[in-house]
From TrEMBL:
Domain of life from the UniProt record: Eukaryota
The organism of origin for this protein: Paramecium sonneborni
Domain Thioredoxin: 11-104
Pfam family membership, one: Thioredoxin
Protein name, UniProt field: Thioredoxin domain-containing protein
Length: 123
């Protein structure tokens, strides 16, 4: 099964999807007007799925949760993390964030995906 891109609408969905999860998850802060953000979401999913396939899917599914920085319902999530740039990416394991990077940085993205897959394998 491939990763899913799941938009979060509010803090309750964030808590239920990421903080309570017993697995690895990726959170990306985006905005509709920010093309690099939209590109990163697509690129990250594609790369994550390709690397999982190379590993013969020996890892759990890692979903990508997206927060639109400007959506009214997402204000509490944005306030909690206060991303300094868009896109901004966090990696979570068992509800705790373990890595992050900002901007459309392919090297940092690949490093985060590698860490996500390693963490997912260990669970």
């Amino acid at each position: 099964m491939d990763s899913k891109i799941i938009p979060l609408q509010n803090i309750d969905e964030f808590k239920a999807s990421i903080l309570i999860e017993e697995r690895v998850a990726i959170l990306i802060f985006t905005a509709e007007w920010c093309q690099p953000s939209l590109n990163l979401v697509t690129l990250m999913k594609k790369e994550l799925d390709q690397q999982r396939k190379r590993l013969n899917q020996q890892t759990g599914v890692i979903n990508i949760f997206v927060v639109d920085h400007e959506k009214e319902g997402c204000y509490q999530i944005v306030k909690q993390f206060a991303p300094t740039t868009l896109p901004y990416v966090y990696l979570f394991e068992k509800g705790k964030y373990i890595a992050q990077f900002g901007g459309l940085d392919v090297f940092a993205m690949n490093k985060l995906i590698k860490k996500a897959l390693e963490s997912s394998r260990a669970l």
